[in-house]
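Give me the fold.
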Amino acid sequence: MTNNQSKIEKLIAELCPNGVEFKELGELGDFYGGLTGKSKDDFSNGNAKFITYMNIFSNIAVDTDVDIFVKMEPNEKQNKIQFGDVLFTGSSETPNECGMSSVLTKETNEPLYLNSFCFGFRFNNTNLLSPEFSKYLFRDEQMRRQIAKTASGVTRFNVSKKRFAKIKIPIAPIAIQQEIVKILDTFTELEAELEAELEARTKQYQHYYYELLAFGESVKWQTLNEVADFKNGKGHEKIIDENGVYIVVNSKFVSTEGKVKKYSAEQICPIHKNDILMVMSDLPNGKALAKCFYVNENNKYTLNQRICSLTVKNDEELKAKFLFYALNRNKQLLRYDNGADQTNLRKDDILKIKIPIPPLAEQERIVSILDKFDALVNDISIGLPAELNARRQQYEYYRGKLLTFKEYATQ
Protein backbone atom coordinates (compact mmCIF):
# COMPACT_ATOMS: atom_id res chain seq x y z
CA MET A 1 0.00 0.00 0.00
CA THR A 2 2.83 2.41 0.87
CA ASN A 3 4.54 2.05 -2.55
CA ASN A 4 1.24 2.58 -4.36
CA GLN A 5 0.47 5.60 -2.19
CA SER A 6 3.86 7.07 -3.02
CA LYS A 7 3.19 6.57 -6.73
CA ILE A 8 -0.15 8.37 -6.45
CA GLU A 9 1.46 11.22 -4.48
CA LYS A 10 4.11 11.60 -7.21
CA LEU A 11 1.43 11.63 -9.91
CA ILE A 12 -0.54 14.28 -8.02
CA ALA A 13 2.57 16.40 -7.63
CA GLU A 14 3.27 16.04 -11.35
CA LEU A 15 -0.23 16.23 -12.87
CA CYS A 16 -2.32 18.32 -10.49
CA PRO A 17 -0.13 20.01 -7.82
CA ASN A 18 -2.73 22.73 -7.24
CA GLY A 19 -5.69 20.34 -6.91
CA VAL A 20 -8.26 18.88 -9.28
CA GLU A 21 -11.29 20.46 -10.84
CA PHE A 22 -14.71 19.68 -9.34
CA LYS A 23 -17.77 19.82 -11.58
CA GLU A 24 -21.51 19.33 -11.12
CA LEU A 25 -23.03 16.24 -12.71
CA GLY A 26 -25.44 18.44 -14.66
CA GLU A 27 -22.44 19.95 -16.49
CA LEU A 28 -20.96 16.58 -17.36
CA GLY A 29 -23.81 14.55 -18.83
CA ASP A 30 -27.48 13.63 -18.85
CA PHE A 31 -29.87 11.53 -16.79
CA TYR A 32 -32.25 8.98 -18.30
CA GLY A 33 -35.09 6.89 -16.91
CA GLY A 34 -35.80 3.17 -16.74
CA LEU A 35 -38.41 1.16 -18.63
CA THR A 36 -41.84 2.64 -19.27
CA GLY A 37 -45.17 1.12 -20.30
CA LYS A 38 -44.40 -2.46 -19.26
CA SER A 39 -46.91 -4.88 -17.74
CA LYS A 40 -46.27 -7.79 -15.37
CA ASP A 41 -46.59 -10.22 -18.28
CA ASP A 42 -43.69 -8.54 -20.10
CA PHE A 43 -41.33 -9.86 -17.41
CA SER A 44 -42.52 -13.47 -17.50
CA ASN A 45 -41.49 -14.29 -21.06
CA GLY A 46 -38.82 -11.77 -21.97
CA ASN A 47 -36.17 -11.64 -24.69
CA ALA A 48 -33.81 -8.90 -23.39
CA LYS A 49 -31.75 -8.67 -20.21
CA PHE A 50 -33.14 -6.52 -17.45
CA ILE A 51 -31.11 -4.87 -14.65
CA THR A 52 -33.11 -4.91 -11.43
CA TYR A 53 -33.23 -2.52 -8.49
CA MET A 54 -31.44 -5.08 -6.27
CA ASN A 55 -28.75 -5.65 -8.90
CA ILE A 56 -27.86 -1.97 -8.60
CA PHE A 57 -28.31 -1.79 -4.83
CA SER A 58 -26.11 -4.83 -4.14
CA ASN A 59 -23.25 -4.36 -6.64
CA ILE A 60 -20.83 -1.50 -7.25
CA ALA A 61 -20.39 -2.91 -10.78
CA VAL A 62 -23.50 -4.09 -12.66
CA ASP A 63 -23.85 -7.87 -12.73
CA THR A 64 -24.61 -8.66 -16.38
CA ASP A 65 -24.59 -12.43 -15.84
CA VAL A 66 -28.31 -12.51 -15.02
CA ASP A 67 -31.27 -14.54 -16.18
CA ILE A 68 -33.94 -11.87 -15.68
CA PHE A 69 -35.52 -10.75 -18.95
CA VAL A 70 -38.11 -8.32 -20.25
CA LYS A 71 -40.10 -8.56 -23.47
CA MET A 72 -39.04 -5.97 -26.06
CA GLU A 73 -40.72 -5.37 -29.40
CA PRO A 74 -38.64 -4.62 -32.54
CA ASN A 75 -37.78 -0.90 -32.75
CA GLU A 76 -39.35 -0.23 -29.33
CA LYS A 77 -38.17 3.11 -27.96
CA GLN A 78 -36.62 2.46 -24.55
CA ASN A 79 -33.39 3.69 -22.98
CA LYS A 80 -30.53 1.19 -23.20
CA ILE A 81 -27.67 1.03 -20.72
CA GLN A 82 -24.24 1.71 -22.19
CA PHE A 83 -20.69 0.98 -21.07
CA GLY A 84 -19.61 3.55 -18.45
CA ASP A 85 -23.16 4.54 -17.43
CA VAL A 86 -23.72 5.08 -13.71
CA LEU A 87 -27.03 3.62 -12.54
CA PHE A 88 -28.87 4.76 -9.40
CA THR A 89 -31.79 3.51 -7.33
CA GLY A 90 -34.47 6.19 -7.24
CA SER A 91 -36.11 5.61 -3.86
CA SER A 92 -35.83 3.83 -0.52
CA GLU A 93 -37.28 3.73 2.99
CA THR A 94 -34.46 5.93 4.29
CA PRO A 95 -32.61 8.84 2.63
CA ASN A 96 -29.26 7.20 3.40
CA GLU A 97 -30.15 4.27 1.13
CA CYS A 98 -31.45 6.35 -1.77
CA GLY A 99 -29.36 6.77 -4.90
CA MET A 100 -27.24 3.64 -4.43
CA SER A 101 -24.99 3.35 -7.46
CA SER A 102 -23.69 0.68 -9.81
CA VAL A 103 -21.59 1.16 -12.95
CA LEU A 104 -21.58 -0.83 -16.18
CA THR A 105 -17.86 -1.65 -16.30
CA LYS A 106 -17.98 -4.25 -19.08
CA GLU A 107 -18.40 -3.73 -22.80
CA THR A 108 -21.42 -5.71 -23.98
CA ASN A 109 -23.06 -6.24 -27.36
CA GLU A 110 -26.39 -7.36 -25.92
CA PRO A 111 -29.01 -4.71 -25.06
CA LEU A 112 -29.55 -4.04 -21.35
CA TYR A 113 -32.62 -2.33 -19.91
CA LEU A 114 -33.16 -0.61 -16.58
CA ASN A 115 -35.71 -0.98 -13.79
CA SER A 116 -38.38 1.73 -13.82
CA PHE A 117 -37.62 2.64 -10.19
CA CYS A 118 -34.04 3.48 -11.15
CA PHE A 119 -32.31 6.00 -13.39
CA GLY A 120 -29.05 6.26 -15.27
CA PHE A 121 -26.42 8.92 -15.84
CA ARG A 122 -24.30 9.11 -19.00
CA PHE A 123 -21.18 11.27 -19.32
CA ASN A 124 -20.95 13.44 -22.43
CA ASN A 125 -17.22 12.72 -22.52
CA THR A 126 -16.87 8.98 -21.87
CA ASN A 127 -13.11 9.38 -21.39
CA LEU A 128 -13.52 11.76 -18.46
CA LEU A 129 -13.96 9.12 -15.75
CA SER A 130 -12.90 5.51 -15.94
CA PRO A 131 -15.93 3.24 -15.25
CA GLU A 132 -13.76 1.28 -12.80
CA PHE A 133 -13.01 4.55 -10.97
CA SER A 134 -16.67 5.61 -11.05
CA LYS A 135 -17.80 2.42 -9.32
CA TYR A 136 -15.71 3.37 -6.27
CA LEU A 137 -16.25 7.12 -6.41
CA PHE A 138 -20.05 7.03 -6.26
CA ARG A 139 -20.08 4.57 -3.34
CA ASP A 140 -17.60 6.54 -1.23
CA GLU A 141 -18.95 8.06 2.00
CA GLN A 142 -18.26 11.63 0.83
CA MET A 143 -20.37 11.08 -2.27
CA ARG A 144 -23.05 9.19 -0.34
CA ARG A 145 -23.53 12.19 1.94
CA GLN A 146 -24.16 14.43 -1.08
CA ILE A 147 -26.56 11.89 -2.59
CA ALA A 148 -28.56 11.51 0.66
CA LYS A 149 -29.30 15.25 0.57
CA THR A 150 -31.07 14.86 -2.79
CA ALA A 151 -33.80 12.65 -1.25
CA SER A 152 -37.03 13.79 0.37
CA GLY A 153 -40.18 12.10 1.65
CA VAL A 154 -42.02 10.87 4.74
CA THR A 155 -42.58 7.10 4.70
CA ARG A 156 -40.60 6.59 1.49
CA PHE A 157 -37.86 8.85 0.16
CA ASN A 158 -37.37 9.76 -3.50
CA VAL A 159 -34.37 11.30 -5.23
CA SER A 160 -34.74 14.73 -6.85
CA LYS A 161 -32.98 14.74 -10.24
CA LYS A 162 -32.74 18.52 -10.04
CA ARG A 163 -30.78 18.31 -6.78
CA PHE A 164 -28.83 15.30 -8.07
CA ALA A 165 -27.56 17.37 -11.00
CA LYS A 166 -25.91 19.72 -8.47
CA ILE A 167 -23.72 16.97 -7.00
CA LYS A 168 -20.04 17.83 -7.47
CA ILE A 169 -17.43 15.23 -8.35
CA PRO A 170 -13.64 15.45 -8.67
CA ILE A 171 -12.19 15.13 -12.17
CA ALA A 172 -8.84 13.53 -11.41
CA PRO A 173 -6.37 12.77 -14.23
CA ILE A 174 -6.88 9.29 -15.72
CA ALA A 175 -3.42 8.12 -14.61
CA ILE A 176 -4.34 8.85 -10.98
CA GLN A 177 -7.74 7.18 -11.38
CA GLN A 178 -6.04 4.03 -12.67
CA GLU A 179 -3.62 3.83 -9.72
CA ILE A 180 -6.47 4.30 -7.23
CA VAL A 181 -8.45 1.54 -8.94
CA LYS A 182 -5.47 -0.85 -8.62
CA ILE A 183 -5.33 -0.33 -4.85
CA LEU A 184 -9.07 -0.59 -4.27
CA ASP A 185 -9.36 -3.64 -6.53
CA THR A 186 -6.79 -5.39 -4.33
CA PHE A 187 -8.90 -4.69 -1.27
CA THR A 188 -12.10 -5.94 -2.92
CA GLU A 189 -10.35 -9.11 -4.14
CA LEU A 190 -9.13 -9.88 -0.62
CA GLU A 191 -12.62 -9.22 0.73
CA ALA A 192 -14.15 -11.52 -1.88
CA GLU A 193 -11.71 -14.29 -0.90
CA LEU A 194 -12.71 -13.95 2.76
CA GLU A 195 -16.41 -13.94 1.84
CA ALA A 196 -15.94 -17.12 -0.20
CA GLU A 197 -14.11 -18.81 2.67
CA LEU A 198 -16.81 -17.73 5.12
CA GLU A 199 -19.50 -19.11 2.80
CA ALA A 200 -17.64 -22.43 2.55
CA ARG A 201 -17.26 -22.62 6.34
CA THR A 202 -20.96 -21.81 6.77
CA LYS A 203 -21.92 -24.69 4.48
CA GLN A 204 -19.55 -26.96 6.39
CA TYR A 205 -21.15 -25.83 9.66
CA GLN A 206 -24.64 -26.57 8.33
CA HIS A 207 -23.50 -30.02 7.17
CA TYR A 208 -22.07 -30.91 10.58
CA TYR A 209 -25.08 -29.35 12.31
CA TYR A 210 -27.51 -31.80 10.72
CA GLU A 211 -25.09 -34.72 10.80
CA LEU A 212 -24.42 -34.37 14.53
CA LEU A 213 -28.11 -34.03 15.37
CA ALA A 214 -29.27 -36.91 13.15
CA PHE A 215 -30.13 -39.57 15.74
CA GLY A 216 -31.98 -42.80 15.11
CA GLU A 217 -33.68 -45.24 17.43
CA SER A 218 -30.45 -45.82 19.38
CA VAL A 219 -31.21 -42.86 21.67
CA LYS A 220 -34.22 -41.95 23.76
CA TRP A 221 -36.70 -39.48 22.24
CA GLN A 222 -39.10 -37.36 24.26
CA THR A 223 -41.63 -34.68 23.43
CA LEU A 224 -40.58 -31.12 24.14
CA ASN A 225 -43.45 -30.94 26.62
CA GLU A 226 -41.77 -33.67 28.69
CA VAL A 227 -38.39 -31.98 28.91
CA ALA A 228 -39.09 -28.22 28.97
CA ASP A 229 -41.45 -25.62 30.43
CA PHE A 230 -43.12 -23.21 28.00
CA LYS A 231 -43.82 -19.49 28.53
CA ASN A 232 -45.38 -16.94 26.16
CA GLY A 233 -44.08 -13.40 25.81
CA LYS A 234 -46.16 -10.24 26.29
CA GLY A 235 -46.63 -7.10 24.19
CA HIS A 236 -44.18 -4.24 24.85
CA GLU A 237 -45.40 -1.76 22.24
CA LYS A 238 -46.54 0.84 24.78
CA ILE A 239 -43.43 0.76 26.94
CA ILE A 240 -40.61 0.82 24.37
CA ASP A 241 -38.03 3.26 25.75
CA GLU A 242 -34.70 4.03 24.07
CA ASN A 243 -33.30 4.80 27.54
CA GLY A 244 -34.59 1.52 28.99
CA VAL A 245 -32.21 -1.05 30.44
CA TYR A 246 -33.99 -4.23 29.31
CA ILE A 247 -33.61 -5.55 25.78
CA VAL A 248 -36.97 -6.51 24.25
CA VAL A 249 -36.60 -9.90 22.58
CA ASN A 250 -38.71 -9.68 19.43
CA SER A 251 -38.47 -11.56 16.12
CA LYS A 252 -36.06 -8.97 14.66
CA PHE A 253 -33.73 -9.36 17.62
CA VAL A 254 -33.71 -13.15 17.27
CA SER A 255 -33.41 -13.22 13.45
CA THR A 256 -30.43 -10.82 13.51
CA GLU A 257 -28.59 -12.81 16.21
CA GLY A 258 -29.19 -10.01 18.73
CA LYS A 259 -27.86 -7.17 16.57
CA VAL A 260 -31.14 -5.18 16.15
CA LYS A 261 -32.34 -4.08 19.59
CA LYS A 262 -35.25 -2.24 21.20
CA TYR A 263 -35.35 -1.37 24.88
CA SER A 264 -37.92 -1.28 27.66
CA ALA A 265 -37.85 0.41 31.05
CA GLU A 266 -39.82 -2.51 32.50
CA GLN A 267 -39.08 -6.20 32.54
CA ILE A 268 -42.68 -7.35 32.26
CA CYS A 269 -41.74 -10.82 31.05
CA PRO A 270 -38.38 -11.86 32.59
CA ILE A 271 -36.07 -14.32 30.86
CA HIS A 272 -33.43 -16.29 32.69
CA LYS A 273 -30.00 -17.65 31.93
CA ASN A 274 -30.07 -20.88 29.84
CA ASP A 275 -33.59 -20.19 28.54
CA ILE A 276 -34.17 -20.83 24.84
CA LEU A 277 -36.26 -18.24 22.98
CA MET A 278 -38.14 -19.11 19.80
CA VAL A 279 -39.91 -17.03 17.15
CA MET A 280 -43.53 -18.23 16.77
CA SER A 281 -44.69 -16.03 13.89
CA ASP A 282 -43.22 -15.11 10.50
CA LEU A 283 -44.10 -14.22 6.92
CA PRO A 284 -44.31 -16.97 4.27
CA ASN A 285 -40.94 -18.61 3.61
CA GLY A 286 -39.33 -16.26 6.12
CA LYS A 287 -36.05 -16.94 7.90
CA ALA A 288 -37.26 -16.14 11.43
CA LEU A 289 -39.85 -18.88 12.03
CA ALA A 290 -38.63 -21.32 14.74
CA LYS A 291 -35.35 -19.36 14.92
CA CYS A 292 -33.93 -19.60 18.44
CA PHE A 293 -31.81 -17.45 20.73
CA TYR A 294 -29.84 -18.81 23.68
CA VAL A 295 -29.82 -16.67 26.85
CA ASN A 296 -26.33 -16.40 28.35
CA GLU A 297 -27.05 -14.02 31.23
CA ASN A 298 -29.70 -13.08 33.78
CA ASN A 299 -31.70 -9.89 34.24
CA LYS A 300 -31.02 -8.40 30.81
CA TYR A 301 -33.98 -9.34 28.59
CA THR A 302 -37.74 -9.09 28.53
CA LEU A 303 -39.82 -11.30 26.23
CA ASN A 304 -42.11 -9.83 23.58
CA GLN A 305 -45.29 -11.42 22.27
CA ARG A 306 -45.13 -14.13 19.56
CA ILE A 307 -41.82 -15.23 21.08
CA CYS A 308 -41.81 -18.09 23.56
CA SER A 309 -39.24 -19.17 26.11
CA LEU A 310 -38.40 -22.78 26.93
CA THR A 311 -36.71 -23.81 30.17
CA VAL A 312 -35.16 -27.26 30.60
CA LYS A 313 -36.83 -29.16 33.45
CA ASN A 314 -33.89 -31.42 34.36
CA ASP A 315 -30.37 -30.38 33.32
CA GLU A 316 -28.97 -33.69 34.61
CA GLU A 317 -30.74 -35.33 31.69
CA LEU A 318 -30.77 -32.61 29.03
CA LYS A 319 -28.38 -29.69 28.58
CA ALA A 320 -30.02 -26.40 27.60
CA LYS A 321 -27.41 -25.60 24.94
CA PHE A 322 -27.95 -29.00 23.31
CA LEU A 323 -31.71 -28.35 23.27
CA PHE A 324 -31.04 -24.96 21.69
CA TYR A 325 -29.20 -26.58 18.78
CA ALA A 326 -31.87 -29.27 18.44
CA LEU A 327 -34.65 -26.65 18.29
CA ASN A 328 -33.10 -23.91 16.14
CA ARG A 329 -35.08 -23.80 12.86
CA ASN A 330 -36.29 -27.33 13.61
CA LYS A 331 -37.71 -29.07 10.53
CA GLN A 332 -40.59 -30.48 12.54
CA LEU A 333 -41.76 -26.89 13.04
CA LEU A 334 -40.84 -25.48 9.62
CA ARG A 335 -43.30 -27.90 7.99
CA TYR A 336 -46.11 -25.62 9.24
CA ASP A 337 -44.91 -22.88 6.87
CA ASN A 338 -47.12 -23.33 3.79
CA GLY A 339 -45.44 -20.50 1.85
CA ALA A 340 -48.77 -18.72 1.32
CA ASP A 341 -49.94 -17.15 4.59
CA GLN A 342 -48.25 -15.80 7.68
CA THR A 343 -47.27 -18.78 9.81
CA ASN A 344 -48.18 -18.79 13.50
CA LEU A 345 -46.86 -21.70 15.53
CA ARG A 346 -49.20 -22.78 18.31
CA LYS A 347 -48.03 -23.84 21.75
CA ASP A 348 -49.28 -27.38 21.08
CA ASP A 349 -47.37 -27.53 17.75
CA ILE A 350 -44.16 -26.66 19.52
CA LEU A 351 -44.53 -28.88 22.57
CA LYS A 352 -45.40 -32.05 20.69
CA ILE A 353 -42.18 -32.19 18.61
CA LYS A 354 -39.74 -34.99 19.47
CA ILE A 355 -36.30 -34.27 20.93
CA PRO A 356 -33.36 -36.76 20.95
CA ILE A 357 -31.84 -37.33 24.40
CA PRO A 358 -28.35 -38.84 23.94
CA PRO A 359 -26.05 -39.37 26.96
CA LEU A 360 -24.83 -36.14 28.60
CA ALA A 361 -21.25 -36.72 27.46
CA GLU A 362 -22.42 -36.93 23.84
CA GLN A 363 -24.56 -33.80 24.26
CA GLU A 364 -21.54 -31.90 25.59
CA ARG A 365 -19.32 -33.16 22.76
CA ILE A 366 -21.83 -32.01 20.13
CA VAL A 367 -22.30 -28.63 21.81
CA SER A 368 -18.51 -28.10 21.92
CA ILE A 369 -18.17 -28.79 18.18
CA LEU A 370 -21.13 -26.63 17.17
CA ASP A 371 -20.09 -23.77 19.46
CA LYS A 372 -16.71 -23.62 17.72
CA PHE A 373 -18.30 -23.62 14.26
CA ASP A 374 -20.85 -21.02 15.32
CA ALA A 375 -18.12 -18.71 16.62
CA LEU A 376 -16.09 -19.19 13.44
CA VAL A 377 -18.93 -18.16 11.10
CA ASN A 378 -21.05 -15.82 13.25
CA ASP A 379 -19.00 -14.15 16.00
CA ILE A 380 -17.89 -10.72 14.76
CA SER A 381 -15.25 -10.47 17.50
CA ILE A 382 -13.27 -13.56 16.42
CA GLY A 383 -12.71 -15.83 13.43
CA LEU A 384 -13.60 -15.08 9.83
CA PRO A 385 -16.34 -12.49 10.57
CA ALA A 386 -13.85 -10.44 12.61
CA GLU A 387 -11.24 -10.65 9.85
CA LEU A 388 -13.81 -9.73 7.19
CA ASN A 389 -15.09 -6.82 9.27
CA ALA A 390 -11.54 -5.51 9.78
CA ARG A 391 -10.83 -5.82 6.04
CA ARG A 392 -14.02 -3.87 5.19
CA GLN A 393 -13.13 -1.10 7.63
CA GLN A 394 -9.62 -0.91 6.16
CA TYR A 395 -11.05 -0.76 2.63
CA GLU A 396 -13.51 2.02 3.57
CA TYR A 397 -10.73 4.00 5.25
CA TYR A 398 -8.39 3.85 2.24
CA ARG A 399 -11.23 4.42 -0.22
CA GLY A 400 -12.13 7.64 1.59
CA LYS A 401 -8.48 8.69 1.81
CA LEU A 402 -7.71 7.94 -1.85
CA LEU A 403 -10.85 9.65 -3.12
CA THR A 404 -10.31 12.87 -1.18
CA PHE A 405 -8.90 15.50 -3.52
CA LYS A 406 -7.91 19.08 -3.03
CA GLU A 407 -10.17 21.29 -5.15
CA TYR A 408 -8.44 23.44 -7.73
CA ALA A 409 -9.11 27.08 -6.97
CA THR A 410 -10.12 28.88 -10.16
CA GLN A 411 -9.25 32.57 -10.45
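The radius of gyration is 27 Å.
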